[in-house]
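Mods, move this if it's the wrong board.
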Amino acid sequence: MRICLSVFFFLVLGKLFSQTIIGTVKEKGSGLPLPFANVFISNTTLGKATDREGRFRISGDLPQEIEVVASFVGYITEVKKISTRGKSEIQVDFELAINESNLTEVQLKAKRDKNWEREFRRFEEVFLALPDDPFKPKIEITNPWVVDFERVKVQGAPNYVKASAQEPLKIINQALGYEVDYYLQDFRVSRGGSRFYGQVFYESIGNDSLAQTWEEVRDENYYQSIRFLNQAILLNSPDTAHFRVYHALPERLDRIRTNDLTQEIGETVIPMSTDSILRRPNGDGTFRIFLPGRMEVHHVDKAWKNDYYTNVYYAISWIFAPEGFYDVDRKGILINPTQLVLSGYMGRQRMARILPLDFEPKSSYMVTAMEAEIEQNPIEKWDRLREKAWFTTNKPYFYPGETAWIGGHMLFQEPAWSDTLSRVLYVDLLDQDSVYQSFTFPLVEGRISGGFEIPGSLPAGDYALRAYTNWSRNFPSSDQFLLALPVLDPRLKPISESLEEEDIIGGVTVQPFFSISDSLSFRVMGLDLKFLDEFQNPIDAKFVLSLTDWEEVAFIDQNNDLEKALDWLDSDLPAAFSNDFSFPIEYGISVRGNFIPDNRRRPLAQPITIVRGDLEDYGQVQSDSMGRFWATGLYFRDTAQIAISAVSERLRPFGSIELTSFSKLGPATSLPKLNFETEALSQEIQLLDTSGDYILLEEFVKEEVKERETMADRNYGYGIPNREMGEEELSKMADWKQVFGQLALFGNYTFGEKTGPPLIILNGQKLPGIDPEEIFLTLVPAEVESIKVYNDNISKSVFGMLGYGGVYMIETKKGFRSGPDSDRKFNSEGFTIFEIPGFTDFTEFPNQPPAEQFLKRKPTLYWEPFAQTEEGSFQAQVKVPYGVKQIRVKVEGRTTDGEVISKILELRL
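Not the wrong board. Structure tokens:
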């Protein structure tokens, strides 16, 4: 029976015949013929220009469902959907209407600004190629000015960006060797996904020297496509040299999934031969393919980076039919693309890799190495890994002895790498000749917050802040951030400049609303900032917020506009760029040193154990064959004692350790300077911003119920977990395997670093070095009040090296507060102890002074570097000293869609 079925499919697929589309193209209304109009079959290389009578004739082996397109300059393009089933010749006539709304090329170019440029970059990534695709540098749109963007709000749905084009997009694809005309019908992208649709005409580039290369690359892409897989299924092929297909089973509650393919075969992935996949003809020349569930496709001859399995080095795709089936024509082309969901390698398809539907491979091509992939310029690879800081200060100038607070965020050439790049920022206070002070601040989700005291002995003058990461030192100095920081003589005050706000940043508006009430010690302002897009719909944003006393803080332009700072995203590395990348990415405080063995027979490559304090943090790294080691990820403020040693299998320290000092940047070659005028004061300035004037409350009180929070309620200060399960859910769990199946699994998402087992925090106590199973054997889910999981790079970074493998925070119910011995102490005998400086210890801005303390006037009234909206609104209670009559509100940041917000608002009390 199988042989007969194979023969049947072969005969059906082999019954190919040339079909012809004939017709005319005329002007609508007059009926006059349009000579030299373009007519083509969408997504193919089949097309013709009309003759003098407006007639055309197109022949070829056509897909069964096609779109015939007619276009002419100055007229509206017309598309007709045609079924070719069983027809040898089809008549199609067009009447094109004059396009009254066409803008000229000059008019279109004149409309462009920085917002458009950023939208166009995102458009290219969605439409042409993903940022890490080696084909991306080889494809471009040669007439980008025809694309326009608008933001659309749908009732009850998220905002999205829509792109439209007045003319067909002209695309040169040097990767596959095609010139492409794309008639864009629909393009939209939102935070949740993207889609685009249009009619496409392909024409081969005439270049004999590259013809052979293009032929090989086209064949390779074809053999990795869903179309080829569909043909293998239709032809009943028992196997293919290009694919291995597996049925991906749902995760089992009684088994934790590994990332080892050899262990998963037969457990979560079941091998399937393509000839075992059910398919049948629909009777109209199309075929229906039935999938048993989610299918995992291994592209065994396509070398590609893979984060899913640790022992697999080729591309992987997943295909899933929501209805259980999907329909294709005899060429394997999807009839309805919405019937099939593609992810993984096949889901990466963009215009850079899409072949025309009439493409047929020239050979039984088989990739044996990566040579067939068009090689990516290494400079372009490094360019995507660049990062740069941008921040602002709570006011534009300072006096000696004041505290300066900074807030901002990192800029990334490729945002997808943001959680893998630096989490440590260095900031220097410098003048033209020297570096006065250096500070180290943690980066939290790419956002910046810090503060420092300007020395009281610092002479007045022009200073600057320089910010950089250890990783950014591998790149040109333009990747370092510089901000002018004038320090004034206390007898002088700047003369305020006129405020000229340019409202050109994406149409986002910020509307302030406030109320005032009096208390004994200060006034309370209820502040509500509403963020609205150009359609007056709420839009969310992350921003830095400062409120200053209008009378006490003069306005001077800091020349630090975030919109201008984003120009850095358009800068490329010079063609001559080269670097040995000796400055690694830092995930926290780092130590670097050398292991010196006490016995010449011992190898220099040894596990190096690093312990902070009494096991507050703990980790291991491997020294190399020269004895050198590098450890990063420690998280502490000020200075800590760090014990370091190589440790034998019997847990005995041996050898000695020498630390290597980190080199520092010297003075900058040039510094920014602000130009402003000053005026003399009758006496020295009296109102200063100093962090020590307020007494901060140590207790946290819930506003609504006046109930004191426990440390457990506040997650012991470690922030919000990724996942958590409460008492009610835990009571329904039969065992811990079921709990883990619903919570999370841990993986190594820290670039270049090894992870150990998850850290256990039991009732607030860290238990380093203890196997989690040891804890869970002593408890059952019903005895646990809550379990919280920290397993992504952002949330677990606060735990230091201990948190590399993720964190389980367990809070048991009262009466079940038992666990491992809590008197475990670290024995540092044999370890070398070092004093290591950590993150700069600074006092957060005192936004919440005690109610019983009289609030003196200050230049800065409120400072929030991590401000963000909820449903387009930001609300805060601002304590305002008596005597303040006018407040300047400064908002600097970006919406969640990437638009820049830079606003200065005035509030009169």
